[in-house]
Design goal:
Helix content is about 85%, strand content about 0%. By secondary structure, the chain is mostly helical. The chain starts with 6 loop residues before the first helix and ends with a helix.
Length: about 70
């Protein structure tokens, strides 16, 4: 599996987890919320990759149709 996380993601997740820890005063609640955020982030990345892949296939199909008409 290709991980698309870079240093900006880790800094953002660290800041969010630190803020949650300060707000909730609970490690377990902070970890639970952070796990949900990571899950949502991964689902959005997968959705975006699928959408881009489908869009690229549609563009290639249109090019093939245009070349067959010529």
């Amino acid at each position: 599996m290709n991980n698309n996380y870079n240093i900006k993601h880790f800094i953002l997740f660290f800041c969010v987890s630190l803020a949650l820890l300060l707000l909730t005063d609970s490690w377990l609640m902070t970890l639970g919320i952070l796990m949900l955020l990571l899950l949502i982030d991964r689902l959005l990345i997968n959705y975006d990759n699928k959408r881009r892949h489908r869009q690229n296939q549609d563009n290639e199909n249109e090019k093939d149709k245009d070349s067959q008409l010529d």
